[in-house]
Specification:
This protein is of the alpha+beta class. The chain has one domain. 22% of the residues lie in helices and 38% in strands. The protein is built from 3 helices and 7 strands, in the order E-H-H-E-E-H-E-E-E-E. Strands 3-2-6-5-4 form a 5-stranded mixed beta sheet. Strand 5 and strand 6 form a beta hairpin. The longest helix is centred in the middle third of the chain and has 9 residues.
């Protein structure tokens, strides 16, 4: 199992955190990406803004919003990220563990 461990370092820097957490819904250019949702094991099509596409291509992940599934107490942020070790290239999941990892 491979972890995308640099998420913890990115979000530890508060100035960078504010730039990554901005609302990206106002961007006009949309890109469609097919990704496997790790939670429910279904493929889904995501419409990414140009900023989200830039983050995905340069740092390997982008926040796509908050979601809540049945039996969950609250919404949590979900991310699309790239994993070239698996058959599907893109995945959708939430951050796991104390070290804030996305499992690949």
């Amino acid at each position: 199992m491979v972890y995308i461990s640099y998420i913890n370092e990115v979000y530890r820097d508060k100035s960078l955190e504010n730039r990554l957490m901005i609302d990206v819904t106002g961007f006009r250019d949309k890109y469609t990406v097919r990704a496997l949702n790790v939670y429910d094991k279904k493929m889904e099509e995501l419409k990414l803004s140009s900023l989200q596409k830039f983050l995905l291509s340069h740092i390997g992940f982008a926040r796509i919003g908050k979601r809540r599934y049945p039996d969950w107490a609250d919404e949590i942020p979900f991310y699309v990220y790239r994993c070239r070790l698996q058959k599907e290239e893109f995945f959708v999941d939430y951050i796991h563990g104390y070290n804030n990892r996305l499992d690949c």
